[in-house]
Amino acid sequence: MEATTSQDYSQAPINQQLSAEDKINLYRSMARIRRFEQESLKRYQGGQMGGFLHLYIGQESVAVGTLSLCGPHDHAITAYRCHGHALASGMSMKECMAELYGRIDGCSRGKGGSMHFFAPDKNFWGGHGIVGGQTPLGLGLAYGVKYLGLEGACFCYLGDGAINQGAFHESLNIAELFDIPVIYVIENNGYSMGTSQVRSSAFKETLARRAEAYDMEWDVVNGEDIYEVRAKCHVALERAHKEKKPTLLELNTYRYYGHSVADANAKKYRSPEEVADYKKNHDPLNLWKTRLLAEGVLSEEIAKEINKEVRQEVLDAVAFAEASPTPGVETITEDVYWEVDNNTEAGNTGRHFFND
Amino acid sequence: MRTLLYRHALREAFDEELERDDNVVLMGEEVAQYNGAYKVTEGLWQKWGDKRIVDTPISEAGFIGMGIGASMLGVRPVMELMFWSFHSVAFDQLVNNAACMRYMSGGLANCPIVVRGPANGGTNVGATHTHTPEGLFAAFPGLKVVSPATPADAKGLMKSAIRDNDPVYVMENTLLYGMEGEVPDPADGDFVIPLGKAEVKKEGTDISLIAHGRSTLIALEAAEILAAEHGINAEVVDLRSIRPLDEETIMQSVRKTHRAVLVDESKPFCGVSAQITTMIQDQCFDDLDAPVKRVCTVDAPGIYAPALEVPHQLPTAKRVVEQVLSIR
User: Fold this and answer.
1) Residue in chain B nearest A76 by alpha carbon
2) Is there a contact between A136 and B196 if contact means CB atoms under 8 Å apart?
3) Are B291 and B326 in contact (CB under 8 A)?
4) Which amino acids of B are annotated catalytic?
5) A353: distance to nearest CA of chain B, Å?
6) A315 shares its domain with A218
7) CA–CA distance from B50 to each of A137, A176, B26, B54, B322 (Å)?
8) DSSP run (H or E) holding A294
9) Omega within 30 of 0 (cis) for the link into B244
C-alpha cells in the first residue's frame, strides 16, 4: 500500500524514448480520465444515469502508463472500473458518455453501461462486471495473439479483491503452463469494496508474490509514478513479446471515491486522513505535473490550457450524449446472435427468440 | 451407405473442420495424448499435433474462458467438457462471458466457440455426472444448443456448430458414442446439418412423439411398440437443435396428429419439453384433441442404483407408451 518510489525510473530506456510531447500527452491522457469521471459523477448524481458508477479517480496513472506501452498486437481487458482504460485505449469521450447515458450512440449502443465499455478496433475488450471473470478472457486474448503467430500480449487488469477468485488462479496456472503472453495487472487500491486488503487476502508481504506458486515472474510497482509503471511494465511486455511468458504485476494505487458511487460506507471504512493524504501526497496527476514542471517539459500555462481543452471535451461529450437518441425498443433483441444480426442463412433458420 | 460409430462421426467432423480452417483448435482434458476420455478425439493429436489439439489441465473455468477470449480474435476453439455435468465449475464463463459478450459490446465482439461433451444419465455414475443442461443453457439468449441423436446428425451438426459465429453448446451422449449409423461419405460432398432444423425420424398419423438426443431413440422404440401392440401410428420428431428451434416442424406434426407426447431426459421443471409444451398450446390449441403429455426423467437428482436409473428414472419406452395410451 505505502510503496514509494525509491528509485528514479525516468532514465529507464523506455522512458528515455519519451519526447516532451509524449510526456505532455501522458498528462493530458490522465487529465481526460480525471475530468471525465468528475463529470460522470455529477451527471450520475443528477439522475441522468442508471446502474452503478465505479470511478477511476486516483488510479489514472495505471491505465495510462501501461497502455502507453502498447503496440498494434497488444490487447487490454479489465473489470467494471473500466472508464480509464477505455479512454487510455483511445476511445472518445463522446461514445463513453453516451454509453453512460444509455443512448444509441454509446460505445455498446446503450447495452453495456458503465461496467461494459468495448472498443475491439482499439484492442480494448471490456469492461466486465463479474469480479475475476475477465481473467481467463485476458488469458485467451494472449493465447489468441500467440496462436495467430503475432508478437503481442494482453494486459489483463484486476482489482486486489479479484485475486481470491478461482478463475484467476486457474488462469495463472494455464498462463505459465502454456507460455502465454499475458500480463496480469493487479490494481491494488487497498480495498475489495469495503473490505481492506488485510481483511480479505492471505499473503506474505505482497499479493503478487502468489505468482511464485506458479513459477511465474512478478513485480510490485508504485502505481502513482508513471515512469516506474512504464519501466516495470515494459519489462513484462518484453518478456511477453520475446519469451511468450506471463507476468503478475501488482500496481499500488488508490481510489478517492467509494467502490462505486452507491457505496454507502465509503467514508466509514477509510479515515478522512487516509484519503486526504493520498490526495495531497500521492495523486498521480499532481505528481506527474510536478515532475514535468521540474523537468521544464510542462509549464503552468500549458497545463492550464490542457485542462481547459479537456473540460471542453467533456462538455462536448455530455452534449453529444444528451442529443443522442434513446435506443429503439427493437434494439433489445439486436446484438444477441451474430448470425441473426448479419441476416445469414444460419440466422434465418429456426426460431432464435421466444417472446410472447 | 457406409456406417460409422457416433464417436467416429464426431471425429470425422473435427478432422474435416481442422483441415478446412487453420483457426479451429480442439482443447480439453485428455483430448490429445490420451485420445479423449471417450475416444472421441482418438488419433487427432497424432495427426494434427500440439498446436491444434490441446490437452488442458482440469480447469474448466480457465480453459473455457481462455477459449472465449481467443475466439474474439478469430480463433475457433472447440472445447470438450469431459462431462457436460462439469459446466457448473465454468458457469460464469459459459453464461456471462460467452452468452453476453456480443450483447454487452453492442455487437462489436462475438464468440465463435463450440463447447461439447456428453450430457446424459444412464451410466450409473451418480447425480454429479448425470446432468442434462440443454434446457438450462437454451434459456440464455446468445447461446445455441444442439443435441444429436444419430451419428449422421452428430457429424452434420458439429460441422455447422464449428462454422457458426455464435457460441454453440453441443450435448452428446456417452450411451450413443458406440452406436452405429449411416453417415454420408465425404467423397459425396460436404455434409452439414443446419442448426435449427428438426427431422421427422418416423412419419405417423396418430400422435406426435417429440424428443431430442437419446430420447429420440426411446420415442422410436415406443413407436414400434405402439404400432405392433396397439395399432397406433406415431410420428417421431427429433428436434436435433434446441435453440434455434424448428417450431414449424413441431407444429406441422401436431396439426397433423392432434396429439403430442414429449420425451425429454431433462428434469420436468422448466425443461426443454416444458417450453415446447407451452408453445404447442399457444399455437395449436384448436388442433389438439388431448392435453399435451410429457415423459421426463423422474424428478430427483440422478440415482446411482443400476436397478433403478435406466429402468425407472430415465424416460423409457414403456412410460411413453403409457402416456400415449392415457390420451388415445
Assistant:
1) B69
2) no
3) no
4) 60, 129
5) 8
6) yes
7) 21, 16, 10, 6, 52
8) helix A284-295
9) yes
The answer to whether residue A2 is domain-embedded is no
A315 and A334 belong to one structural domain: no
pLDDT in tens, chain B (328 residues): 899 999 999 999 999 999 999 999 999 999 999 999 999 999 999 999 999 999 999 999 999 999 999 999 999 999 999 999 999 999 999 999 999 999 999 999 999 999 999 999 999 999 999 999 999 999 999 999 999 999 999 999 999 999 999 999 999 999 999 999 999 999 999 999 999 999 999 999 999 999 999 999 999 999 999 999 999 999 999 999 999 999 999 999 999 999 999 999 999 999 999 999 999 999 999 999 999 999 999 999 999 999 999 999 999 999 999 999 999 8
Instruction: Pick B73's closest partner by Cβ from A106, A128, A141.
Output: A141
Q: Decide if A140 and B68 are in contact by the 8 Å CB cutoff.
A: yes
Residues of B in contact with A144 (CB under 8 A): 69-75
Q: Quote the CA–CA distance of B274 and B280 in Å, as a whole number.
A: 10
DSSP letter (8 states) at residue A351 = B
Quote the pLDDT of residue A263: 85
Structural domain includes residue A3: no
Tally of structural domains, chain A = 2
Residues A190 and A239 in one domain: yes
Min distance A77 CA to chain B CA atoms (Å) = 10
Please tell me which residue of chain A has the smallest CA distance to B111.
A338
The answer on A240 and A163 residing in a single domain is yes
Same domain (yes/no): A67, A178: yes
* Domains annotated on chain B, with CATH: 3-188 (3.40.50.970), 199-326 (3.40.50.920)
**Chain B residues closer than 8 Å to A170 by CB:** 57, 59, 61-63, 65
Three cell numbers, residue A206:
505482497
The helix (H) or strand (E) run that includes residue A295 is helix A284-295
Question: Is beta strand B234-238 parallel, antiparallel or unpaired with respect to B199-202?
Answer: antiparallel
pLDDT value of position A1: 40
> Given this model, what pLDDT does residue A6 score?
66
Closest CA–CA distance from residue B120 to any residue of chain A (Å) = 24
Whether A108 sits inside 8 A of B67 (CB atoms) is no
| In contact, A173 and A211? CB cutoff 8 Å | no
Domain contains A331? yes
Cell of A70: 502498447
- pLDDT score recorded for residue A3: 47
- Is A281 inside a domain boundary? yes
The whole-angstrom separation of Cα B106 and Cα B104 is 5
Q: What angle do CA A118, A119, A120 make, to 5 degrees?
A: 110
Give the pLDDT confidence score for residue A267 in this predicted structure.
84
Q: What is the pTM of this model?
A: 0.97
Q: Please identify which residue in the block is written with the cell numbers 486486489.
A: A160
A192 and A333 inside one domain: no
For residue A5, what pLDDT is reported? 52
- Considering the domain architecture, whether residues A104 and A145 belong to the same structural domain is answered as yes
Chain B residues within 8 A of A158 when measuring between CB atoms: none
Residues of chain A with pLDDT under 50: 1-3
CA proximity to B125, closest of B318, B327, B310: B310
Here the contacts of A235-239 (C-beta below 8 Å, separation 24 or greater) are A236/A183, A237/A69, A237/A70, A237/A74, A237/A153, A237/A183, A239/A181
| The predicted structure's pLDDT at residue A4 | 52
Terminal alpha carbon distance of chain A: 54
Contact call for residues B266 and B134 (beta carbons, < 8 A): yes
Which grid coordinates belong to A295?
523537468
Domain that holds residue A335: 326-356
- Whether A256 and A340 share a structural domain: no
User: In chain B, what residues touch A333 (CB-CB under 8 Å)?
Assistant: 141
